[in-house]
UniProtKB/TrEMBL annotation:
Topological category with respect to the lipid bilayer: Multi-pass membrane protein
CDD domains linked: P-type_ATPase_cation (cd07542)
Domain P5B-type ATPase N-terminal, first and last residues per copy: 14-122
Main localization of the protein described in the UniProt heading: membrane
Record protein name field: Polyamine-transporting ATPase 13A3
Highest taxon of source: Eukaryota
Keywords, comma-separated and alphabetical: ATP-binding, Endosome, Magnesium, Membrane, Metal-binding, Nucleotide-binding, Phosphoprotein, Translocase, Transmembrane, Transmembrane helix
Length: 1104
């Protein structure tokens, strides 16, 4: 019944959850209430911490339709509960076109669907405060404070209360600050006034929060920040989608084509798909820069999604509710504390004291064993690291993640604005004449070149447009056009109307570049007079065939004013362009020249030209297929572009490579550009191969498949069989579309691909997040560095997200760098490693401190004595807190090393270090404890036998004698020196932190405390003057065993062949012996469903 009634919420989405129904049970509620009262509220706390237990303890399982409470389980095994509401829906469903014909229909839709605003719940500080206070650590501190107050130990209790209040106040301030930043981001432009069509010719002004799917809105000519997702049905828009893609290049959106015209033989009932009709969809949060319309018609769009269902809403949800990041250190810390509690519980097994005394003192021992100052001590290193990061311009809103940065072994980088400067630079051109290359030329705006086909192609073959008088478009097109020195002139609305809605854009050189005569013998004077442009060399762009990443080219059909015939210009990947040209026009040394440029890291674009037939008219061009245009071309030459990296990029990536930290590029940019940049910056070494995985979804009954091919095949090997040597390093590159297909249809290959995946291009925001999750699923510690709002989800999901922007991305990112380059990444990793090692050192020190104090108290309890209040206070405040806060001051080591710090507390060398220190401390305490009692002058105190039953009346009158005695003094001094010795031994330096002797506050504090202890030691206990030798012996023993013993154990562990723990290491071992991996280029991998209908796994078949 349970399986059948299990419901799936948001199936197939990132936030998919299992929902099960429960009904409240009265008798269970009564039992839980009684249990809570009997346990003093502890049961209520336990159920608060465990929502799953709470629901099952107070409810009984039922069908969802009858349930009062729902238990939700996320894909990351987190539980939450919520109450259920029921809505009665009796309205008859009608087609969308019949809705909103009247105001009443629209109003009722708004009422039914409530507000469509991107609205964040009001932040209630009281609830946030309660959630902080009810944290298990703070509850334990409260318990400890109450226990100490009953034992009249007020001073340390006050100190702990003050530290806890400061910690909670700091957390509240940070949460409030993050909420305000995120609220401002959500609220920005989310509520605007829009024009809504309510009938044939009727419009009205409405708030965007009142929009519902199906509304038809008018896009204003002066632009707007889209408040919803809508599909264009009339007109054209130029949109800045940087909020989603991170690329500042404006995108042209056209109206949705008529299904009856678009699908031959179709019935006109085509289904709208966001992915398929992306070029016609205006996404929420994107900026409409400019609109274009014809013959007086308004630019209209139909609302398809509102609120948190929009593209921006999904981005906000990913920031508000990221999947939790698990870190082994914190799990191990809790386990370690439980072990310490178990140790403390053993201490009183043998005790002969009354039950009440046993309980009180056992609880006291537990508060000693699990020190309440541990959270403050553990965060000391993080606080200091945060302060050092702030000095180098790195700010953090999630300081706890600094420790995780120390474990990073893979960093994902956005490209534009992160690794590179924005845009490309022109390096030069190399023209072809009579089938031969000219020498390379630096400038294309020379007077001698202005009327050549090469420069005309550069000036006309692009998708640029003017926005508010400024040229805008693809950076490559922009640089190429600017290099010609030409001018772009767009047609007016009146000119467009004269040409049956054919929108013309003209390009022309400035008059000073034109030779005296540019007329052609075929010039048509009638046309020349019509346009009144006979005095200039003007080219009109009649048709554009947009750039296709699959075809790796774009082309245009143009007509020079006054010419009868039209021309076609083509640009694209050199190999592709050359294959479309006449063989005799392509130079024989084409492959060698191209290889020479690509090896130098240049981005090379090839140009071609074709004179079209005179019978081809304006109207025929609008319907002709591009394949009929892009053939039998004349090769014109090469444009050499330089994609400038930021100066710091190669050096930083080299530092990361030497430190064995993998680097991956995740960008919204073009695939070939991304691969070129990856080679230039050293992410892909010159000798390494790049295999492109081009995945295609199922189509026309055919299974999904992946085509494998090299990104750049050197010319010398074009005629040789393509076989990748095992020893050769290879990288996979894929687009966002391919990544989506692989996730859906090739789950078996996904982890193998990301193991060597280096370039991920054209990635949508949600795909970047999915990639980070996939990398984390194979046990990588992932960092993400980006600068755009499209990186927000990945920045939030990664173990460490680093934003180079102080805008939207900084809201989601745990770290923000004010330095606009990636030097912040190694700085953050170095500080993370230093903070992580500091946490280990502090945790080991605090564990030893608690064990040492526990041993001291246990030894003293055995004779009926105990440490005094001021002795506790001196140890806890003057020694422990001073040492903890000074030993954490070691700054990070100056460079990244290949060695990584341990990720957890449960490791052989670390446990060996702690256990040996415990044994040594126990041995010396027992030795001192027994030695003092063997001395001739020692006499037993009067209270020694007070725990024998007939002496119980004397127990209450011996408080002072119980504390002020020789054994107490001896144990106090021995343990005090042990705290300082252990601190010195555990304060590690290289290779992650600066040496301890450079930490002068720590050295000075330790020396002052040791001197002070020696000073006070000689006055109350003059008989143990020779204790100094024991202290030196202790230091030598502790340090020697910790250093050499740990190193020996590490060496022995390394000698044994260990099975790697991380999944990516397992996978790498498996693939290294797999003869069929990597897939051979020029082959295809097909996915076919398994024979069993209920089995959704796939069989992989390789087809050459």
């Amino acid at each position: 019944m349970e399986k059948e009634d299990l419901k799936i919420v948001n199936r197939g989405l990132e936030d998919e959850m299992e929902l099960s129904g429960y009904r409240l049970c009265r008798w269970k509620l009564v039992l839980v209430g009684l249990g809570g009262l009997c346990t003093g509220g502890f049961l209520f706390l336990l159920l608060y911490w465990m929502p799953e237990w709470c629901v099952k303890a107070t409810c009984t399982r039922s069908a969802v339709r009858d349930a009062d409470v729902a238990l939700l389980q996320s894909t990351c095994l987190l539980f939450s509960s919520c109450s259920l509401r029921r809505y009665e829906c009796n309205v008859k469903l009608t087609p969308v076109r019949e809705h909103h014909d009247t105001h009443s229909t629209a109003d009722s839709a708004v009422v039914n669907m409530s507000s469509q605003e991107l609205e964040m719940k009001e932040l209630k500080l009281v609830l946030i405060f309660l959630s902080q206070v009810l944290n298990p650590f703070y509850i334990f501190q409260l318990f400890s404070v109450i226990l100490w107050c009953t034992d009249e130990y007020y001073y340390y209790a006050m100190a702990i209360v003050i530290m806890s209040v400061i910690s909670i106040a700091t957390s509240l301030y940070t949460i409030k600050k993050q909420y305000v930043m995120l609220h401002d981001m959500v609220a920005a432009h989310s509520t605007v006034r829009v024009t809504v069509c309510r009938g044939e010719n009727e419009t009205e002004e409405a708030l965007s929060t009142d929009l519902v799917p199906g509304d038809v809105i008018v896009i204003p000519s002066n632009g707007i920040i889209m408040p919803c997702d809508a599909v264009l049905i009339c007109g054209t828009c130029i949109v800045n989608e940087s909020m989603l893609t991170g690329e500042s290049v404006p995108v042209t959106k056209t109206d949705l084509p008529n299904p009856q015209q678009d699908i031959k033989g179709g019935d006109g009932d085509a289904i709208y798909s966001t992915e398929e009709h992306k070029r016609h969809t205006l996404f929420c949060g994107t900026n409409i820069i400019q609109t274009r319309y014809y013959t007086g018609e308004m630019v209209k769009a139909v609302v398809v999604r509102t609120g948190f269902s929009t593209a921006k809403g999904q981005l906000i949800r990913s920031i508000l509710y990221p999947k939790p990041t698990d870190f082994k250190l914190y799990r191990d810390a809790y386990l370690f504390l439980l072990c310490l509690v178990a140790v403390a519980s053993i201490v009183f097994v043998y005790s002969l004291e009354p039950v009440k005394e046993i309980i009180v003192k056992s609880l006291d021992i537990i508060t000693i064993t699990v020190p309440p100052a541990l959270p403050a001590a553990m965060t000391a290193g993080i606080v200091y690291a945060q302060r050092r990061l702030r000095k180098v311009g790195i700010f953090s809103i999630s300081p706890q993640r600094i420790n995780i940065c120390g474990q990073l072994n893979l960093v994902c980088f956005d490209k534009t604005g992160t690794l590179t400067e924005d845009g490309l630079d022109m390096w030069g051109i190399q023209r072809v004449e009579d089938g031969r290359f000219h020498h390379s030329e630096e400038k294309a705006d020379d007077k001698s070149l202005v009327t050549t086909k090469f420069v005309s192609c550069m000036a006309a073959c692009h998708s640029l447009t003017k926005i508010e008088g400024q040229l805008s478009g693809d950076p490559l097109d922009l640089k190429m056009f600017e290099a010609t020195g030409w001018i772009l002139v767009e047609a007016t609305e009146e000119e467009t109307a004269h040409h049956d809605r054919i929108e013309l854009t003209y390009v022309k050189p400035p008059n000073q570049l034109l030779p005296p005569s540019v007329t052609s013998p075929e010039q048509d004077m009638e046309l020349s007079e019509l346009y009144e442009l006979s005095a200039s060399y003007m080219i009109g762009i009649v048709r554009q065939f947009s750039f296709s990443s699959a075809l790796q080219r774009m082309s245009v059909v143009v007509r020079q004013i006054g010419e009868r015939r039209m021309d076609a210009y083509l640009k694209g990947a050199p190999e592709v362009v050359a294959s479309l040209c006449k063989k005799e026009t392509v130079p024989e040394d084409f492959a060698e020249v191209l290889e020479d440029y690509t090896k130098q890291g240049f981005r090379v674009i090839a140009l071609a030209h074709r004179r079209l037939e005179s019978k081809l008219t304006f109207h025929k061009v609008q319907s002709i297929n591009r394949d009929q245009i892009e053939k039998n071309m004349d090769f014109l030459g090469l444009i050499i572009m330089q994609n400038k990296l930021k100066t710091e990029t190669p050096g930083v990536l080299e530092d990361l490579r030497r430190a064995n930290i993998r680097t991956v590029m995740v960008t919204g940019d073009n695939m070939l550009t991304a691969i070129s940049v990856a080679r230039d910056c050293g992410m892909i070494q010159p000798q390494d191969r790049v295999i492109i995985a081009d995945a295609l979804p199922p189509k026309d009954g055919q299974a999904a498949k992946i085509d494998w091919h090299y990104a750049d095949q050197p010319s010398k090997q074009l005629n040789k069989p393509t076989k990748l040597e095992v020893s050769e390093q290879y990288h996979f590159a894929m687009s966002g579309k391919s990544f989506a297909v692989i996730i859906e249809h090739f789950q078996d290959l996904l982890q193998k691909l990301v193991l060597h995946g280096t370039v991920f291009a054209r990635m949508a925001p949600d795909q970047k997040t999915q990639l980070v999750e996939t990398l984390e699923s194979v046990d990588y510690f992932v960092g993400m560095c980006g600068d755009g709002a499209n990186d927000c989800g990945a920045l939030k999901r990664a173990h460490a997200g680093i934003s180079l922007s102080e805008l939207e991305a900084s809201v989601a990112s745990p770290f923000t760098s004010t330095t606009p380059n990636i030097t912040c990444v190694p700085n953050l990793i170095r500080e993370g490693r230093a903070a992580l090692i500091t946490s280990f050192c502090v945790f080991k020190f605090m564990a030893l401190y608690s064990i040492i104090q526990c041993l001291s108290v246990a030894l003293l309890y055995s004779i009926g004595s105990n440490l005094g209040d001021f002795q506790f206070l001196f140890i806890d405040i003057a020694i422990i807190l001073v040492i903890v806060f000074t030993m954490s001051l070691n700054s990070a080591w100056k460079e990244l090393v290949a060695q990584r710090p341990p990720s957890g507390l449960v490791s052989g060398p670390l446990l060996f270090s702690v256990l040996t220190q415990i044994i040594i401390c126990l041995g010396f305490q027992i030795m001192a404890f027994l030695l003092i009692q063997k001395l001739d002058w020692y006499s037993k105190p009067d209270f020694y036998n007070c725990f024998v039953p007939h002496h119980m009346d004397d127990f209450t009158n011996s408080t002072k004698e119980r504390i002020k005695n020789d054994v107490n003094t001896t144990v106090f001094f021995v343990s005090s020196f042990q705290y300082l010795i252990v601190a010195i031994v555990f304060s590690k330096g290289k290779p992650f932190r600066q040496p301890s002797y450079k930490n002068w506050p720590f050295v000075l504090s330790a020396l002052i405390l040791i001197g002070f202890l020696f000073f006070i030691m000689f006055f109350p206990v003059a008989e143990i003057d020779d204790f100094l030798e024991v202290c030196l012996f202790l230091i030598i023993t502790h340090g020697g065993i910790d250093q050499f013993g740990t190193k020996c154990l590490t060496w022995l562990c390394c000698r044994q062949k260990k099975v790697p723990k991380a999944r990516y290491m397992h996978l790498a071992q498996e693939l290294s012996v797999d003869p069929d991996w990597p897939p051979k280029p020029k082959s295809t991998t097909e996915a076919k469903p398994a024979p069993h209908p209920d089995d959704y796994s796939y069989q992989i078949e390789a087809i050459s």
